[in-house]
Amino acid sequence: MPINIEISADKVALGKAAATHGARLIREAIAKNGSANIIVATGASQFEMLQELIKEDIAWEKVTAFHLDEYIGLPITHPASFRAYLWDRFQRRLPRPLKAFHYVAGDEEPKAECCRLGELIRQSPIDVCFAGIGENAHLAFNDPPADFDTEEAYLVVNLDEACRKQQFGEGWFPTFDDVPKQAISMSIRQILKAKTIILSVPDARKAKAVADSLQGPVTNLVPSSILQQHADTTVYLDPASASLLKKG
Questions:
Q1: Has residue 137 been placed in a domain?
Q2: 243 located within any domain
């Protein structure tokens, strides 16, 4: 299925558009099923989207959220912790508490944590997955060459140099050597089980990954290219991140 592409004037408008889209789907899921299950991402690409999503009129007490990924060995007190990011930028700012938020605990035993989260998400069909695309085209922390085949919901992954450079470049760690080399990540197959996937991808540094993912061949060397096979994915771009897309 072709990926829907929406280009906004800037990253603020991008965030608003992605949040409005996702909020509508969450409300529809609650109206239909009495509850909704979502996946929430982190990183600099999600700042504006999350800022807008928390403003939406949603019965948050009927929403269960899952976390995409976390560094192995990083406590929640670390400035780069994705759990801390989601608490500070999303969960604590909601007007009403979530039904549940299932965080990835990177400082727990990794295989046991993957099993725990896998059992939880198997019981919770995902209505909306909010995500991004990495500079190396990773999806969650599935760096190239990504595992397109495993049916495990969460897995331990090795972070490649490009991914670690992105994390350092975004200012999460004081030096490149401080960036962890492994993480727990939601798998590609689990992400694809979401009914709808909404990607927020601003900035020129993402332009090549965007073009390769949306208009190139599907390959595990460009992990986000697998989204071309998903039935309902929309990517929200700004002019900079869309700059290398072929017209027509």
A1: yes
A2: no
Per-residue pLDDT at 211 exceeds 70: yes
CA angle 215, 220, 224 (to 5 degrees): 50
List, for residues 128-155, the tens digit of each pLDDT value: 999 999 999 999 999 999 999 999 999 9
Alpha carbon separation from 154 to 62, 113, 136, 230, 234 (Å, rounded) = 24, 8, 20, 19, 23
State how far the Cα of 141 lies from the Cα of 157, in Å rounded to an integer. Answer: 7
Residue 178: count other Cβ atoms within 10 Å of its Cβ.
13
Q: Is residue 127 part of a domain?
A: yes
The type of residue at 182 is Q
Cα distance between residue 234 and residue 210, in whole Å: 12
CATH number of the CATH domain containing 116? 3.40.50.1360
The amino acid occupying position 28 is E
pLDDT at site 248? 67
pLDDT of residue 2: 84
In a domain, 86, yes or no: yes
| Mean local confidence (pLDDT), 105-121 | 97
C-beta separation of 25 from 69 below 8 A: no
* Structural domain that includes position 26: 4-237
pLDDT at 184: 98
Give the number of domains in the chain: 1
